[in-house]
Every structure is written in structure tokens, then in C-alpha cells.
Specification:
Elements: H1 2-26, H2 32-35, H3 65-68, H4 71-78, H5 82-93, E1 96-100, E2 103-106, H6 111-118, E3 122-123, H7 145-156, H8 161-164, H9 167-185, E4 198-199, H10 200-217, H11 229-244, H12 248-251, H13 256-259, H14 262-281, H15 290-296, H16 301-332, H17 334-349, H18 377-380, H19 384-396, E5 404-407, E6 413-415, E7 429-431, E8 436-439, H20 441-444, H21 467-476, H22 490-505, E9 508-512, E10 537-542
Parallel strand pairs: 2-8
Antiparallel strand pairs: 1-2, 3-5, 4-10, 5-8, 6-7, 9-10
């Protein structure tokens, strides 16, 4: 045990020294004001201290270990504690906190726009380690803002709302959802209720993967996990192995070859082979998918594979988690569930389906659960309670709640609290070029200044008639990121969530299962999260409209 701890400490110290040398080298030609490898306030930024924060009451607040090394915050990542640790530090120190000699975290929502949307803040080196297939870059891993913008334009057009809403795509999406609804029925217990609770986390993983891969590769080359759950388990087991050891490549890139266990190497190889075979099969599909569009744009096979692999990995980690938490909350809040059901049914009654057969005519021979009561996505988009429930789920259960790190440009960045709620205007801090700066959704979404009783699930907060409060809440809600790095798959994810929730509530009642407890549903503390138990059981009972 002592040997393991000693090895880990040596590794952490090595990484700290490597990062220090990298940052110093990258900015060696900058002015003295910006080469200070510390984070000083305007009054102390000309301090002669280099390599750490100056020990002054005016420097960025934080734990004393953060002045010396990044080891302690990396250790929190390895122990699955970073998000909650950073959140606790903001509660203790305020809207700006030092995490390491060259890294700070902000919790002021007004900074989102400047750092992620309008400012010249490139991604940090953290993202470069998400290049795949032998280091082939994708939109997520490209660091340069200009290069990222070029690649993003290519990718984003494939996931536009107009593309998703094409009739062929909507039929394919709704066909997958219909198949998933059958899995909720189970065997009746004599009261119309499924005799066994359904693990909706697994169900929604299969559903999301079928929708996502069908959209990317074309239906013949899609995963077909809903109809082949054994195949799904094999692939997801490989992804789970990668998820459990996610921190190795981002935090120990130079040592990854020594730290990676054989199980991780096998898992990466297995999922890569599966995706490449699906990508090559997609060339024979009649309907063009995202793969075809990316290849037609000039991307090579490996560049396309890197993009697709990134979308698949992030997709399976996000949408199923949101759907699981949303359905779980509806199962334990029966009055909210009924209000939402009635909103959807009322919308269905007032909608003209005469020119739309997206839900009534399957594209396959799969049996269909009745979809006639599911309004079209253009109607679902406008339902206020449905939007409120989704927003509240994304707020409290953001599937990617961790820090999104950026680099302060060479000119530096002066942080000044945006309002008296976040501190005195005179308490500004100058952050020199090269400083790693980040904001984590976990903390923004739990800001008591913006969200009253932030740990409670309360969709009604989004229905208040107060434009200013709504503006502030929407400004702080960033479950899909912000600006140029806004999640490319956001439109597809929201379409799946809205139609799936509508399909469930117009076919079933949801009840909590004694196989899932509050402790089971506690969120893991990682870059991407899920229920700690890795399951979410819900009971379903058939609903029949009057």
C-alpha cells in the first residue's frame, strides 16, 4: 500500500514539473508582467515571485497546497471528488478560487460569455489528449480557436435542427423510440403493472446508441442494441472500462503507456474496431448519414472516425443519464408526472396530424406502441412544462458537470466581480497569460444567488413570470457548454429527450421501484457523470387515455 502511494506521489510531482516547464516555455517571450507563473491581483502582479502564487493576502484565495502544486487537485480527480471539492472551495472562498499554481476556477456566471463566447481563450492542453485513432484530432480535441471553428462548421451542419427534422430522420428516431417503449411493458402482474422493474439507464443507453449510430452511419449500419442487448452489453462494458480510468490520458499523457492496464488497452481497441467496421459499412447505406457528409467535406477516414468516436462516446454518457434522472424524478413526483402528461395530451388534441405520419408508419417491421398521442417535435419544443422539467433535470443532473478549462490569452485577464453578490468591485484579480481558467456547470447550476434552494428538483422555478430572474437562470444554465464549443449533438439529444418523454407518458404511468434508492441515484463525481449504482429501476403501468 505504501509503495503504491509513493509511486502515485512521484507520478503527480512529475506531472506538475512537466506542466510547469511547458507553461514556462510556451510564454518565455511574453512580457515580465505576463510571465509571472502566478496569479496576482492588480496591486501585486509585479511581484518578483515566480513559479507559484505570491504569499500575499491580495492573491487569489484557495487552499495552501494550491500554491505549491497541482498534485492535490489531480488527486481529487482520481478519487472522483473534483467537482464537489471545487464547489466546496467556492462556497468557502467566493467566486474565484486558486486550484493550482497556474490554475483558477470561477463561479461568476457573467464570466461565461467572455471566456467561452467572445474572448480569445483557447482550450487548455487537457483536451488534446482526447484525439483518437493514433492522435487524430477531432473538434473536441483541437486547441486552436481558428482550427476548431473550421472543423466545427463542418460537423455542426450535420446536426442542425433542420437536418434532424427531415422526415426520414424523424421516422428513424421515432421507430427506435417505439421499440424502446415495448421494453417498458414487461410481463403484466395482474394489475397492469410490469411484473419486474425496468433498468431505464440500460434501456436509454441502447436507445441513444441506436438513434445516434443510425443518424451517423445510416440505419443498416446502426448498432441495433435495442434488439441485440447481449451485443450492447459487450460494447458498453468496454466503454465502462474506459470511463472508470478516464483520468489516465488527460492527466498523465507522458506516462500513460506505463499506467494503462491491459484491460484499458483492450477496451479502447474493441470499441475502435467496432466503430471502424460500422463506419466502413455505412458507405453502402442508401440514406446518407453524418459519416457521408463528413467524408464529402474532405475529412479523411481517420478524421471522420475520430469525430464519430467522440460523438458516440459523449452521446452514450449524456442523453441516457438525463432521461434516467428525468423519469426517476417523475416516478417519485406523481402530481408533476400527471401535469406533464396532461400538457402533452392537450397538445396532441389540438394538433393536426393529417400531413404528418412520422409516428404512425414504422420504417421497419418492429411492433409499434401507439404513438398517435405524441405531438410533433415542433409542438413539443413549445410546451412550457416539458421544457421546464428538461431544464431542471439538466440543471441538477448535468451529465458533464466538470470544469471546462481555457487558457488566458497573452494579454492577461482582469477578473472583477460582476455584482455585489459576487464581491466588492475593488477586489479584482489579474490573471497573466497562460493561466488555466475554468468554470464548472456543477457550481453555476447550484448557485444560491441565482437558484433558490438549489439542491431541490423544482421545475416550477422555470415557469415564473419574472423576466429578470429567468434571464439570470438561463445565463447560468450551461449543460451543453457555451459559445464555439457548444455541444454539436445538442439538437439531436433534445429531440430524443422530448419525444421519448412524450411517448412514455402517453403510454405508461411511472412508479418508483424499491430496487433503486436515493443512495443509488447519487451522482458520480467525474468529468461525465451517472448514477453511482450504474442503474435506475422504474416500474411501468400501462396508461390508456379515456
Amino acid at each position: 500500500m505504501l509503495v503504491s502511494v509513493a509511486v502515485l506521489l512521484v507520478v503527480l510531482v512529475s506531472v506538475t514539473l512537466l506542466r510547469y516547464c511547458s507553461i514556462q516555455g510556451r510564454h518565455q517571450n511574453a512580457t515580465d508582467e505576463h510571465t509571472v507563473a502566478g496569479l496576482n491581483s492588480p496591486r501585486t502582479r509585479n511581484s518578483s515571485a515566480r513559479g507559484r502564487l505570491a504569499a500575499s493576502p491580495r492573491t487569489v484565495p484557495g487552499p495552501w497546497l494550491a500554491q505549491l502544486s497541482s498534485c492535490w487537485i489531480v488527486l481529487q480527480c482520481i478519487r472522483d471528488r473534483r467537482n464537489r471539492t471545487v464547489h466546496a472551495l467556492h462556497a468557502l472562498y467566493g467566486p474565484i478560487v486558486r486550484l493550482a499554481p497556474h490554475e483558477v476556477s470561477l463561479a461568476d456566471p457573467a464570466c461565461v460569455r467572455q471566456i467561452y463566447i467572445t474572448g480569445d481563450f483557447d482550450k487548455s492542453d487537457f483536451y488534446s489528449n482526447f484525439s483518437l485513432f493514433g492522435g487524430t484530432e477531432n473538434a473536441f480535441s483541437i486547441l486552436s480557436a481558428d482550427l476548431h471553428s473550421t472543423r466545427r462548421r463542418i460537423v455542426q451542419s450535420s446536426y442542425s435542427k433542420s437536418t434532424i427534422n427531415r422526415r426520414a430522420n424523424m421516422i428513424a428516431i421515432c421507430d427506435c423510440i417505439s421499440q424502446a417503449m415495448l421494453k417498458c411493458a414487461g410481463e403484466p402482474d395482474g394489475r397492469g403493472r410490469s411484473s419486474a422493474p425496468v433498468n431505464v439507464l440500460d434501456l436509454f443507453k441502447n436507445l441513444t446508441m441506436d438513434i445516434l449510430t443510425g443518424f451517423q452511419f445510416g440505419e443498416p449500419a446502426s448498432s441495433h442494441f435495442l434488439s441485440q442487448p447481449e451485443k450492447a452489453k459487450v460494447i458498453f462494458d468496454q466503454y465502462h472500462t474506459q470511463d472508470d480510468l478516464w483520468w489516465i490520458h488527460p492527466y498523465f499523457p507522458t506516462l500513460a503507456r506505463f499506467l494503462c492496464p491491459e484491460s484499458l488497452s483492450r477496451a479502447i481497441s474493441a470499441t475502435s474496431s467496432w466503430l471502424l467496421s460500422s463506419l466502413r459499412l455505412s458507405s453502402s447505406c442508401a440514406l446518407p448519414g453524418v459519416v457521408r457528409q463528413l467524408r464529402d467535406s474532405g475529412l479523411s477516414e481517420l478524421e471522420t472516425a475520430s469525430e464519430i468516436a467522440n460523438h458516440v462516446f459523449l452521446g452514450y454518457q449524456t442523453t441516457p443519464v438525463v432521461l434516467s434522472y428525468l423519469c426517476w424524478q417523475l416516478s417519485i413526483h406523481d402530481s408533476l408526472q400527471e401535469k406533464l402528461r396532461q400538457e402533452i395530451l392537450q397538445a396532441a388534441k389540438s394538433h393536426d396530424y393529417s400531413s404528418q405520419d412520422y409516428y404512425s408508419k414504422p420504417s421497419s417491421d418492429a411492433p409499434k406502441v401507439a404513438m398517435a398521442l405524441v405531438p410533433h417535435i415542433s409542438v413539443l419544443d413549445k410546451l412550457p412544462l416539458l421544457s421546464a422539467v428538461i431544464d431542471e433535470t439538466l440543471r441538477l443532473y448535468t451529465p458533464m458537470p466538470a470544469s471546462e478549462s481555457r487558457l488566458v490569452p497573452a494579454s492577461g485577464y482582469l477578473y472583477t466581480p460582476s455584482s455585489s453578490s459576487y464581491g466588492d468591485k475593488s477586489s479584482s484579480y489579474f490573471l497573466p497569460g497562460g493561466t488555466v481558467i475554468s468554470i464548472q456547470p456543477w457550481t453555476l447550476h447550484r448557485d444560491p444567488i441565482v437558484f433558490s434552494d438549489p439542491e431541490s428538483f423544482n421545475p416550477e422555478r422555470w415557469l415564473i413570470n419574472d423576466p429578470e430572474v429567468l434571464r439570470l437562470m438561463n445565463r447560468s444554465l450551461i449543460p451543453f457548454g457555451a459559445g464555439a464549443t457548444l455541444c454539436s449533438g445538442m439538437n439531436l439529444a433534445l429531440t430524443e429527450i422530448r419525444i421519448t418523454v412524450a411517448a412514455i407518458l402517453t403510454n405508461y404511468y411511472l412508479f418508483p421501484s424499491n430496487k433503486t434508492t436515493l443512495k443509488d441515484m447519487e451522482m458520480t463525481d467525474r468529468y461525465s457523470t451517472r448514477p453511482r449504482s450504474n442503474f435506475c429501476y422504474i416500474n411501468f403501468e400501462k396508461f390508456s387515455p379515456n
